[in-house]
Amino acid sequence: MDLEAMMNATANVNLEDVLHDCRPMFVVYKNGRVHRFMGTDRVPPSVDSITGVESKDVVIDLETGVYVRLYKPRNVEKVGVLVYIHGGAFCAETASSPLYHNYLNNLSFKANVIVVSVDYRTAPEYPLPTGYEDSWTAVKWVFETNHVEPWLRDHVDRSRVYMAGDSAGANIVHNLVKRVSRVSYPLKGIVLIHPYFWGKDRIGSEEKRVESIGFNSLMDKVWMVACPDSSGLDDPRLNPRMDRELGELGVDKVFVSVAELDTLRDRGFYYKDLLLKSGWKGDIYVIETLGENHVFHLFEPHSAKSVELMNQIVAFLHS
């Protein structure tokens, strides 16, 4: 569904009662109520009948209720672990979303890794930096905990830890990896799928893209609602060009996926340029999928191009 169609589908909103209009994702009413139009479905953990991957939920912070959904391949011994952070513009989706449950079940099977999918608290009820901090709690849980959790205790090789995320989740991964260098976690690499980076000034083809006419305004509004204490669209958490610590990225390998029709496409290529100019000494790979839009792989997981992207990510995790 394109942006105009989604806006029409959410047209029955009384704007006089609305404080923040971020359709088609959500609206915030003046009385404080939040109405989400997407990303609210849930599925329970399970044993997948096709792949044999088993999943379960584990609360990692009793005070906040933050949990992770773990995915374990069948007949696994010692394998790597992938900490995955979901997208949704910091405001939608969860670790138990059917989109992410199905995708990560398949990724765990094909990559033969244990996946730790983070259910961070979302804005606007929990504005940033809550999502960053909840996700960092999960990273520390993986690296530092003397695990009573048997899947991590018995089956994970913690010298083979990767992080990945899509859209806002990719943004969170990027911002957390800067912390990794300060604590010397042995992180092997990161995967950023269609990363949510932005800025006050348009770059590349952003201004020319017809579909970005309404999208630019939405991106601007969502960030300021999700992060009300932000300095603006050039906040270094959103715009890596403004990040003086960019060269301190605590990882040696970065995989970036962009989609040709995605308004965020040029930000992925720009990220590579910025990272290489920052003094960072690692290797970065940017892969473009032609003819596809933002997070297409979640909505069409069995398409030829989604399978190709999956295979590229699996190859990176085993490189």
Automatic annotation (TrEMBL):
Gene3D superfamilies listed in its UniProt record: alpha/beta hydrolase
Active-site annotation: 167
Residue intervals of the Alpha/beta hydrolase fold-3 domain: 82-297
Tree of life domain: Eukaryota
Coiled coil: none
MF annotations from Gene Ontology: hydrolase activity
Family: Belongs to the 'GDXG' lipolytic enzyme family.
Protein name, UniProt field: Alpha/beta hydrolase fold-3 domain-containing protein
Source species of the chain: Saponaria officinalis
